[in-house]
Amino acid sequence: MTLAFRLGAFFLTALALLLGGFSTALYLLARTHLQRDLDERLSISLDALAAAAEIEPDGIEWRPGLHRPPEVTHLDDAPVSWAAFDAQGDLLNRCGDGDFTGALRMGPEVGHVHITFVDLDARRWRVVVRRLVPARPPAERKDPGEQRNGKGHSIHSSLTLVAGTPLAPMEASLRNAALTMAGLSTGLWLLAGAAGRLLTQRALLPVTRMAQTAREMTAEHKEQRLPSPGTGDELEDLARSFNGLLGRLHEALERQRRFTGDASHQLRTPLTALISEVELARRRERSPEDYRRVLDRVHGDAVRLRQIVESLLFLARADAEAERPALETVDLVAWLSDHLRHWSHHERACDLRLETASHSPAWARVHASLLSQLLDNLVDNACKYSAPGSPVMIRVERAGGNVSLVVEDRGQGIDPADLPHIFEPFFRSTRGYPRGTPGFGLGLAVVQRIADALGGKVAVESISGRGCRFTVRFPEASAPAGREGNGTGVGEERVSVAER
User: Fold this and answer.
1) What angle do CA 215, 216, 217 make, to 5 degrees?
2) Is 297 exposed, middle or buried (0-12, 13-18, 19+ CB in 10 A)?
3) Each residue's pLDDT tens digit, 53-79
4) What is the mean pLDDT of residues 450-466?
């Protein structure tokens, strides 16, 4: 079931209910109005008929000869019939073909009532029944029947007057009105259905085009995007959002392809070197010293291969795992001082400078093991791209509610054209290759992923030929309970890692 069909069905159902309710209400209002108008006209006719009766204290004098009741009147081509009955229900006078004997049982004791009844010929009538009684109740009279006054006129104890008209003309008019309204409603419904289908298809045409374009898209057409309707509404926003998603997906796919190609190349190089060393050693018998040199080279290639594999596994896990690692509150000043002890045997240990200020501890929520790998990669990168003997400064800074780890060197720096790419996997600056600097371009990519996983941010500042500065910022955390220590004294302590 298409969206256009569902929208059209909903619209037509709502319209059918609306037209049906409107037509029904209009029909009921018309019937009520016609019936009220009919009752008023019947009451007027009955008032004219009642003028032939004179109510006296002891009875009602019926004098049709002096006051001739109306013969026949017409209400919208409906003839009016009338009849007069005495207290015993005997017919005194009548006009028209209406048989109103059955209506007497439905009349009131005193006054008048409007009723609808069916006569013996199964015709429906609308009648007004009015009962006239004298001032003195009939029960107090000696003879409740018909009497004669001195003039010879009939005196009745009560008199019932009935005026009515058949309902067939009114019902025919209502039936014609109902058929007319049904026809108009059906025509409007069909016209609205056709117009609604056309408008729905026209409104959903951009969606149809986007679906057709999406079906024709392939991975080879990286620049292909969904057509934008240019209407400035939700459909254009959908197309723009989907095109943004396609751009991000193509970018991620391109990174994955580049990552796979670079990983294959980086893994193939040490494996090829390792196999070549082993095959060369097996060609002839060699001295123990030769075998030792071969094993040393094989060991170096294996170590390098292990580093590549570990870095690739870390990057793969960082992409796959959505949850952040469990964090703990750590004093970065104390942690940094303790961690750099592991660098005391490095060949550049004398160049490492730990700069600590004697202020209060700098607390941050981090994962100690991941933070160790992050710092080691930054320090190793600084050592590789700076000359031996030049200082490498490591320090902790606090500013603006953040705690920062800073690694700064006095090396050759990073070319401005390379800065946007240094955190991409396998990217190597062109300044490093001419010097034969070891590495495979995953260190800074790992730094970026660890910082993201810990909720931090990495920033780099570099001046070509004068070194660079890496800053990793973390939100400052509250000190754990019972460890709110405050430092005393001012100044700055410079400590060489080699001196520890």
Assistant:
1) 95
2) middle
3) 777 777 777 776 544 445 444 445 567
4) 86
